[in-house]
Amino acid sequence: MLFYPYVQPDYFETLDIPLSSGSGFQQWRRQLEPVAIVSQSAARDLWPGKNPIGESLVLDGSNQFHANGELIPQGASYRVIGTVHDTRGVLLDGTDSNKVYLLLPPDRLEDRPLLVRTVNDPRLLVNQVSGLVRDVDSNMVVYSETLDQKLTESPQFVISRCSA
Q: Phi-psi region for residue 155, left (φ > 0), alpha (ψ -120 to 50) or beta?
């Protein structure tokens, strides 16, 4: 099974997910050719013993269940430009580490949260980010959580802590 999260060009740097080979999305975001970055486990499963850089991958999620309006690949061929280290997903057994990361179309940015990385206390940044957002759209409601808060509030984390 493959998971295909849509991400922004600086996603891996923001979350400190190391690129293990190839290139990131920054130089490809203005290209028309569909490109993808795959997790190391997906690369091993899809191209055992081969370098996946330059390989093509056709993704089509149109026959699977998806929420109304969810962004899904619909038969496009993606060229692999890089690989990244595996990350844990929400499944406790780790079976959701096979990922094909796709570039989020610019017209879908409002569908995604804004991730901000800081070396300082993130609470100090909240007021600054809130002010910037209000400058762009005074009707927008801003709330924030740290990644640690978000992860520890997830049902999977709570269940794993209760069963330990």
A: alpha
